[in-house]
Amino acid sequence: MKTLGIIVVLLFGSLLIYCTLDFPPWGDPQAPASMHVSPRYIERTMQETSVPNIVTAVLADYRGYDTMFETVVIFTAGVACFFLLRIFGRIESESRMYRHIPTGITLRISKDAEPPRESREFERIDLAWVPYDVVVKTSCRIIVPFCQLFALYVIAHGHHSPGGGFQGGVILGASVILFAISNNMRLSFTRISEKMAVLLCGLGVLIYAVTGALGTLLGSNYLDYGALSRLFGVDPVTARSLGILFVEIGVGITVMAVIITLYYNLASAGRHDEGL
Amino acid sequence: MNILVILLLFGGLFFFTGGSIGILRFPDFYTRLHPAGKLDTAGQFLTMSAISLYIMQDFTLHTFLTATKIVLIVIFVYLTSPTATHAIMDAGVRAGLKPWTKAGRHDLAD
After folding, report:
1. Chain A contact for B76, CB < 8 A?
2. A110 strand-pairing partners
3. In this complex, is the C-beta atom of A139 within 8 Å of any C-beta atom belonging to chain B?
């Protein structure tokens, strides 16, 4: 079986390498890609969309369909992970850990015993994360808000610098994961619950699709943001820039929510009771 | 001014080199984390301050803002790098990894 796999890999690998010989050389000005579309993007992006970062304009405007279905792919990945990993119904672990907050003593209580009543003196802690780590908790508390602020900056500043919805969404999701790691998963569920995360996954795609559909409603093509000018009362070029911003926000929300959903499902093995 | 920038850059590179050699040469997990955490932070501080000094040579609002961003990077690395090192150490201790001693490597085995 292993040799068969190696033979197949070698066969297809050599076929792919053979096909790359027909490619135009790297950076060839006569290559089809640099003959037709690239000069137009480079010359006219600024006057057509007023976005200095050509990559963002190509990504969200000229190739809006591509990016929309990329977002759908990410959404699908999140939903697939949810269906593969999520275990419904309660599976009680063998024992639970509680910490008595005033003294810092940890208690291990087996499955059948009666747990401490919900009071301010006891908090439930994860089996894998028993120590009370002030250093990690405090510095993550300082870092997380700046992390989120930077994520918003990356999303909003994608017009002018490298960045955009995908990168900003990943940073936003990472900040929530940092919060969940430094405290515990139950606390992060109180901030962004599972339901909220899954709903946000869909909301981002919806924002993208609705921004595109508004173009159709206002009388031009799907994902033609120039039509939004009538809605906002600005000229079509500024409307394109605004449309790109809305789309990036949608992408950011989806990516963030999918990252959080992936983390919740992977870290707790789908049970959503205890994290890492 | 340029001499100061060069000196700071070389100081930073010295710390980075020391950190890399330390990661390769130290005997076990905990001692390797020591150069990884400390020397990289120090080297980063020196190189970043060299860069911000170099930018600030023609002083405008724009260069001042860029230098402020670099200082912010330094501050955040000073917050996060020691915390990360601390957390990794903690994880190592909790996983039951024994520290290396001069007596011999048999301590690691049990």
Report:
1. yes
2. A95
3. yes
Report if residue A246 sits inside a domain: yes
Find, in chain A, the residue whose alpha carbon is nearest to that of B78: A139
ipTM confidence = 0.76
Task: Give the Cα separation of A32 and A25 in Å (integer).
Answer: 11
pLDDT in tens, B27-51: 888 888 888 888 989 999 999 999 9
Q: B12-21 burial, b for 16+ CB within 10 Å, e for fewer? A: beebbebbee
Tell me the chain A residues in contact with residue B90 when contact means C-beta distances shorter than 8 Å.
131, 133, 136
Interface contact A135-B94, CB threshold 8 A: no
Q: How many domains does one find in chain A?
A: 1
> Is there a contact between A133 and B87 if contact means CB atoms under 8 Å apart?
yes
- Residue A123 maps to a domain: no
Domain-embedded: residue A224: yes
Closest Cα in chain B, distance from residue A139 (Å): 7
Q: What is the pLDDT of residue B110?
A: 44
**Cα–Cα dist A62/A49, whole Å:** 10
Enclosing domain of residue A259? 40-87+130-267
Segments making up each domain of chain B, as ranges: 2-93
Per-residue pLDDT band at A269 (split at 50, 70, 90): confident
If one counts every other C-beta atom within 10 angstroms of the C-beta of residue B48, the result is: 18
| pLDDT, tens digit, 9 for 90 and up, residues B64-73 | 999 999 999 9
Give the chain A residue whose CA is nearest to the CA of B69.
Answer: A150
Q: Does residue A70 lie within any of the structural domains?
A: yes
Chain centroid offset of residue A179 CA: 16
Distance between CA A97 and CA A123 in Å, rounded? Answer: 9
**Tokens encoding A19:** 């096909």
What are the tens digits of pLDDT across the range A177-189? 999 888 878 888 8
pLDDT at A125 over 70: yes
Q: Which of A125-129, A206-210, B22-26, B52-56 has the lowest mean pLDDT?
A: A125-129
Q: Is A219 helix (H, G, I), strand (E, B) or coil?
A: coil
| CA–CA dist A116, A94 (Å, integer) | 16
List the structure tokens of A260: 């959080």
Q: Does A276 lie at the interface with B, CB-CB under 8 angstroms?
A: no
What is the residue type of A257?
Answer: A
